[in-house]
Amino acid sequence: MQNDLSKRLFTFSVSVIKFVRTLPFQVEYKVINYQLIKSATSAGANYEEAQAGISKADFTNKVRIALKEMKETNYWLRIIKEIIDPSSVDIENLTSLIDESLALNKILGSIVTRSKNT
């Protein structure tokens, strides 16, 4: 059974994939698209793995990896925002993805902090 954060990370990953499909086909986007999809989906996958952690340390490590991947996702989204022609993409959707990545960063960071302190 998925918890709320698992569902949120899954939905975010799907949203990123759908957003990437709308980006231009220029050379630089090939690398960015690959890295963005990889990091966004990895964050959710690592959080899912954390749910089956065999120890507290294993759980914390997987959530820490999910946090690192979400930070990378935010980086790639900000790169896109800086280089994209605003008329070629849904800027509102991009801004929403950036905001959600920041919110997920905070949630995952909080879990890591609480896990280290207990």
Commentary on this structure:
This is Four helix bundle protein. It comes from Namhaeicola litoreus. InterPro entries: 23S_rRNA-intervening_sequence (IPR012657), 23S_rRNA_IVS_sf (IPR036583). By secondary structure, this protein is mostly helical. It has one domain (4-117): de novo design (two linked rop proteins), CATH 1.20.1440. Helices cover 82% and strands 0% of the residues. It is built from 4 helices and no strands. It has helices at 4-20, 27-51, 56-83, 91-117. Helix 2 (27-51) packs antiparallel against helix 3. The longest helix has 28 residues, at 56-83. The protein is elongated, with a radius of gyration of 15 Å. The chain starts with a helix and ends with a helix. The model has no long low-confidence stretch (mean pLDDT 94).
CATH class: Mainly Alpha
For the residues shown, what is the average pLDDT?
94
Please identify which CATH superfamily we are dealing with: 23S rRNA-intervening sequence
Quick one: biggest sheet?
none
Point out poorly predicted stretches: none
Number of domains: 1
CATH topology annotation: de novo design (two linked rop proteins)
Strand content range: under 5%
Counting DSSP H or I runs of 4 or more residues, the number of helices is 4
InterPro entries: 23S_rRNA-intervening_sequence, 23S_rRNA_IVS_sf
Organism: Namhaeicola litoreus
Pfam family, one: 23S_rRNA_IVP
Protein name: Four helix bundle protein
